[in-house]
Write a structure and sequence with these properties.
The protein is α/β, with parallel strands linked by helices. The protein is built from 14 helices and ten strands. The protein is flat, with a radius of gyration of 25 Å. Belongs to the bacterial sugar transferase family.
């Protein structure tokens, strides 16, 4: 089983956020002392983030047209203009010059417009001249729309698509398995399917393969296609394309909010708890058994990337640590380890993983590499969990699916909750899971051993 590596240029959208914010906050220092107000800066930041989220201001895809960017800029600044002037009425700041606000808005608009267009054109040149920011694609279809899409891939290098191959579903030599084998061997990122030429069974095979191997499936639509709430229209030139799964955490503002919460919360835990708790536990762990204080284990994170997951060592050193899960009454667990596992204290070093950006506070729990190989090949859609960062706690855990996997339905239900989380993330859901986790730790859990 292969894992997807580096499919997205994750720094581009956060960089856009940073430069925009630096610009319009920096102007409050430069233009006039009247704008140098902490309340105004907070108001501007909150308003900009909320408005950007609602307008999808930073969701400019590689196939976007200049007209879309101009439309986004217009909507963003018309509403931002109204929100900024509302500041005077909301906070009774009648001494604030209206002319100064207009001047501030015009300069902010010019700054962000110039940068947004500059980024747009530089990315185009980067893809054309240097071949960077590229996604490998295949097309499964041979009708007019499929050929139009191939033409776009081949003649719009600025979009950043590397067209590898087309498959003809209605030919005698076509085989879904051969197609999937090619996609796997060539490490293709995106699969475009003409729904008019594939049976439901063939579409199901391709979708299942994509889910289990971290590939993106998109559809060239046809009237017979059954639409559902997870489908989204995009336009490549004038050709409509459907995306199967929309992941909320691929929205840059959502990712920014979640990462900000992760950094703040984990920093407080590391400084406020681990700084004094670690020396005490280290003495108890070393006193009871030989071995390191920390236990580290290779696990798979976002896009299947490997990382070392940290825990306080709760077992005597043993050769089965990377394969065998802890069971009830496990003789490998030490006395202090038993206490740590029941109270989940052994998981606290994973806040260091969160600070490093390898994990999140909330997300699908990362499994041992050995178990990922097993379940990735045996549990349907298991790999969908790896579209987001793994978490210290997760929806499956607070719904009773933590600890040892006793039956096949345990892992199936765990994956089901993980996929629901991936597709329905919200900050409110994260906070609820954190609250439920703390509540479960305080009351005690049957599966905590």
């Amino acid at each position: 089983m292969r894992y997807s590596q580096g499919r997205f240029s994750g720094l581009l959208k956060p960089l856009s956020h940073f430069i925009d914010i630096t610009g319009f906050i920096g102007l409050t220092f430069i233009l006039s002392p009247q704008l140098d107000s902490f309340l105004l800066k907070c108001y501007l930041l909150v308003s900009w983030f909320v408005l950007s989220y609602k307008n999808g201001f930073y969701q400019v895809e590689r196939f976007a047209k200049l007209t879309k960017i101009m439309s986004l800029l217009f909507r963003q600044f018309v509403v931002f203009f109204l929100i900024l002037f509302a500041f005077i009425g909301f906070f009774k700041e009648h001494s604030l010059s209206r002319l100064l606000l207009v001047q501030y808005l015009i300069i902010s608009f010019l700054w962000i417009t110039i940068f947004k267009f500059l980024m747009f054109f530089l990315l185009h040149r980067y893809r054309v001249l240097l071949g960077g920011n590229i996604r490998k694609t295949v097309v499964v279809g041979n009708n007019v729309k499929a050929k139009q899409l191939i033409h776009i891939f081949e003649n719009r290098p600025q979009f950043g698509y590397d067209f590898k191959k087309s498959f003809v579903p209605k030919s005698k030599t076509f085989s879904v398995q051969e197609c999937l084998k090619y996609i796997q061997n060539e490490q293709v990122d995106e699969i475009y399917c003409s729904v008019a030429e594939l049976s439901n069974e063939q579409l199901g095979q391709i979708v299942d393969f994509a889910d289990n191997n971290l590939k993106t499936v998109k559809f060239i639509p046809d009237n017979k296609f059954i639409y559902n709430k997870h489908l989204r229209f995009d336009y490549y030139d004038f050709l409509p394309i459907l995306s199967l799964r929309e992941i909320p955490l691929e929205v840059s503002l959502n990712a920014f909010l979640k990462r900000s919460f992760d950094i703040l919360f984990s920093f407080l835990v590391v400084v406020g708890v681990l700084s004094w708790l670690t020396p005490l536990l280290a003495l108890l762990i070393k006193w009871e058994s030989r071995g390191p204080v920390f236990f580290k284990q290779i696990r798979h994170g976002i896009n299947g990337e490997e990382f070392y997951c940290f825990k306080f060592r709760s077992m005597a050193v043993n050769k089965d640590a990377d394969k065998a899960q802890a069971t009830k009454g496990d003789m490998r667990v030490t006395q202090i380890g038993n206490f740590m596992r029941k109270t989940s204290i052994d998981e606290l070093p994973q806040f260091i993983n969160v600070l490093f950006g390898q994990m999140s506070i909330v997300g699908p729990r990362p499994h041992m590499a050995y178990h990922t190989e097993i379940y990735g090949n045996s549990v349907d859609k298991y790999m969908v969990r790896h579209f987001v960062k793994p978490g210290i706690t997760g929806l499956a855990q607070v719904r009773g699916y933590r600890g040892e996997i006793l039956e096949s339905r345990d892992i199936v239900n765990r994956v089901r909750f993980d996929i629901f989380y991936v597709e329905n993330w919200s900050m409110a859901l994260d906070l609820k899971i954190v609250f439920d986790t703390v509540y479960n730790v305080v009351k005690g859990e049957e599966m905590a051993y």
